[in-house]
Design goal:
This protein has about 250 residues and is α/β, with parallel strands linked by helices. It has a single domain, classed as Alpha-Beta Complex (Protein-Tyrosine Phosphatase, Chain A), CATH 3.90.190. Helices cover about 50% and strands about 5% of the residues. The protein has twelve helices and five strands. Strands 1-2-5-3-4 form a five-stranded mixed sheet, covered by helices on one side. Helix 3 packs antiparallel against helix 4, helix 4 runs parallel beside helix 9 and helix 4 packs parallel to helix 10. The longest helix is centred in the middle third of the chain and has 17 residues. The radius of gyration is 18 Å and the shape is globular. The two termini are about 20 Å apart. InterPro entries: Prot-tyrosine_phosphatase-like, Tyr/Ser_Pase_IphP-type, Tyr_Pase_AS, Tyr_Pase_dom. This is Tyrosine-protein phosphatase. Pfam families: Y_phosphatase3 (PF13350).
Length: about 250
Amino acid sequence: MSAPSRHLPLSGVTNFRDLGGYTGHGGRTVRWRRIFRSDHLAGLTPDGQQALAALGVARAVDFRGVAESAAYAYALPGVAYHGLHIEPTVVQRAQALLRSGATLTAADAVALMQDTYRGFVHENAPRFAQLFALLLESDAPMVFHCTAGKDRTGFAAALILLALGVPRDVVMHDYLLTNDLYRPPEGLAGPAPREVLQVLWRVQTEFLDAALHAVDAQHGGLEPFLREVLGVDTAARAELRARYLEAG
């Protein structure tokens, strides 16, 4: 039998995909159709909403900032909404620099993105802890997203897959799939140079590496970070594996 499709082209989103199918702890496969990642869901068409319902998605986790969520709000029948707000600091910092008259380069944008990812580890850990609490509360199908489904969502997906024992190189491959799938809305050029926008609207290995290196350097690795910062102890990790990995 062929594997289910990872990328699901729901009408109104471009970066909706399944975390299933990867090989995790003990050679067991991450279960398909349980955990999904996406760009924001406010643009879903009626057909897209119907396709989401057909997948059985019962929970949506929104990592967008407060203003982002309010500007493009949504409510989906039968889907419980959880707002775990992480403010889009990289956009705010880039805009502030441009307003000050500074000239942004692609290298500047990469540095801003790396700082943002380190912030996921330092400042935003409570939101990711809440995500794991929701995963442990129920295995009802869930989708989590931010605006583009690439940074806040990308780090969340990496944490989940790593916690399930998926190797880092495979996790990085999943992360980089955004570059093949995500299509920014038209009209977002703004005042930034094109080379800067190319950085801000895509993902790079260096971004996720910045966060994972911070986890290793400051917390002694993934295991203590999960246990001491995200509240995922040995028993909780075993429960995650029981819920989201196929039986061995």
